[in-house]
Structure formats: C-alpha cells, structure tokens
Amino acid sequence: MNQRTRSMLLDSLYAIVLGLILAVAAQYISSFIPGDYSGLAMLPLIWLALRYGSPLAIISALLTGLIVGFTRQGFTDWLPPVLLEEVLPLLSVGFAGLFAKYTQKTLNNRRYSSTYLNIFTGALLTTTSYMFIKFWLTPLALDEISLLQINGWEFWLSLVVIWLIIGLVILIMARSNPKLIIPKRTKYLSRKETSSLLND
To answer: I want to staple 90 with a disulfide (CB 3.0 to 4.6 A). Which of 61, 106, 111, 147 is the partner?
Structure first.
C-alpha cells in the first residue's frame, strides 16, 4: 500500500467518524432550532469529495449512512428504510466531487474568489440534493409523511443553515491551510504545481 492510498483511507476514516459525530450533534441542534440539520453530517464527506473526488466520498457516504441507519433503525426490516432514508441522501456528496479539480486549481493559484465560488456552489448543489431526496423523494417512495414539507419555511431554513455552515467551514479550512484541501499527491495538479504548493 503506497502513501497516497494510506492517506486516502485515513482521511476517509476521519470523514466517517466526524460524519457520525455530526449526525448525533444535529439531533441536539434540531431540538433548539426549528428544522432538521442531519445534513451537517455531510460536512466531512464534502471535504473528502473536494480533496479526492467523488468515488471515495460516495463510498465513505455509503458506510456512514449504513452505520447511522443501523443505530436508528435497528436490524429488523432495516434495508429499504436505511438505504432510502440514510444512505441515498448522503450519496449527494458525489456532486461536490465535480468541483474538486477547479477548487484545487484555483486555490493553488490563489484565485480565492473562484475557490470560494466552487466551494459554495458544490455545497449548495449537494445540500439541495440531500434535502430534496430525504424530505421529498424518500417519503414519496415509502408512502410516508415527510418530517419537513418542502413548501414549509423550516425546510428552507434547514437547507440554508446547513449550506452556509458547510461552505464557511470548508472556506476557512481552504484559506487557513490549503494543504487541508489539496493532498500531497493530488491527481488534479501537476507535479510542478504540487511542488510549488509544498514549498510555500
């Protein structure tokens, strides 16, 4: 196993653990602020997508969703609800991976306004997809009543709060330490570009 693979696996583990912690924390947030903030569990997964691309983030999201689903649903008749309610919405993090290349290139070139645009656009697309899958598509498929109605203000408040928190946290990470976004052996930059980053 080479160093890049070890780094990817370790970062994936970090993202899964942090995602689980945020999934628990989101339940407490929802008890103080109207809405549902379970989407905050995507924060480390979106970071992973921007760092390595969609495939690793999707696999990590799958594992995170299964673990969250098992803890909430149990093992009795768990498969359809867990896959639809917990796993499928989290797979939205794959959209963030579409912005990995240009997030890293613009960050490396210190074109910060473009970096911020990529981060917030990726976070918005991912959050919007997550919210509509979890609170519209899934209840429709399971013939259940949604916890948040998409025409209600709590739905849109939750979406905006989740989006802003995720975007701001990743933005701060990118600006304070670009290496948190750009791994040592990234596939999105040439060796020359990577060397200049590491020498800064």
So the answer is: 61
